[in-house]
Amino acid sequence: MAPPNQILGAKSREVPMRVIVHGLHRTGSKSTRTALHQLGIHKCYHMVDVFANLETDAGLWIRAMEDKFGNAGKDDKWTRADWDKLLGDSQACVDTPSGFFTIELAEAYPEAKVVILNRDPEKWYESVNASVAPGMKPTSVIGALQNWYLATMLPDFRQWTRLVTAMFQYCTPFDYATEKDKAIAWYNESYRRVREAIPAERCLEFSVKDGFRPLCEFLDVPVPTVRDEQTGQVTDAPFPHMNDREAFGLQLRRRTGERMREANRKLWQCFCEAFTVAAMGCAGYYVWKGRWEVRFW
Which of 43, 91, 143, 219 sits in a 20 to 30 Å window from 181, CA-based? Predict the structure, then answer.
């Protein structure tokens, strides 16, 4: 197996890594990503960037999971140059899968500040179980068949399926729907390990409810402000509120619909091509057999 820094098409470091956010899925990660972009820290690598680059990034993340959690390659510790292949054009990272590697990333980029993005474990579990988990591991036969169909027709969805399988195998080895205690224990343990491994003076304990000010003070950047149209007073800008449970569901349904239409178009194209080849083959057969009279003038 080739080391990660030999993978074709991978990135190299283009911008400094400034912020590493230990913010797992459904902790306000997309809101934090938007906030960091507003502060001029971009791009902030998030699962949405994985979706946009499945053909290249999924395989790299799977390799990272295998090297950290798998039996094979246990001594293959990723270097800064290796991580640059994934995050070379990013000044920050948040959400999973980067959240599975907060400690390793903090070690690889010692100049980066670390934000620990907190959410109540019970609320986190409720949110994940009602949004992310069903999309990653369908609970119905129809959902499973739909994923099989998409993976059959679309190469990028095959990569997504491989990535999800690796995440459940290596990172979250439990069933969200039936193993709540295991899920919450894993969540709490991930934060405990980060706090234990990274010095407190390098970290900011943060929640999206805290607003911009503590984050800006920690990152030493100006606090965004807005002017009240009625009073004329200037106040801190509201912290972004993105990707709530309803918005996530709408986005997931829209993305699934787009993929289904793409898969159906591809299936129809395959049928048309197969029909054309079959028709030409039949015509050729009849001509060869002399069933049709062919004249050339």
Answer: 143
Q: Decide if 64 is inside a domain.
A: yes
Q: Which residues of the chain carry a pLDDT beneath 50?
A: 1-9, 73, 292, 294-297
Q: Which tokens belong to 247?
A: 């918005």
pTM metric for this prediction = 0.80
Distance CA 21, CA 283 (A): 64
What total number of domains does the chain contain? 1
Q: What pLDDT is recorded for position 166?
A: 94
Residue 262 lies in a domain: no
DSSP 222: P
Quick check: is 292 in a domain? no
Which parts of the chain fold into alpha helices (H)?
29-38, 47-52, 54-69, 80-87, 102-108, 121-130, 132-136, 141-153, 155-166, 180-197, 212-219, 245-289
What CATH number is associated with residue 122?
3.40.50.300
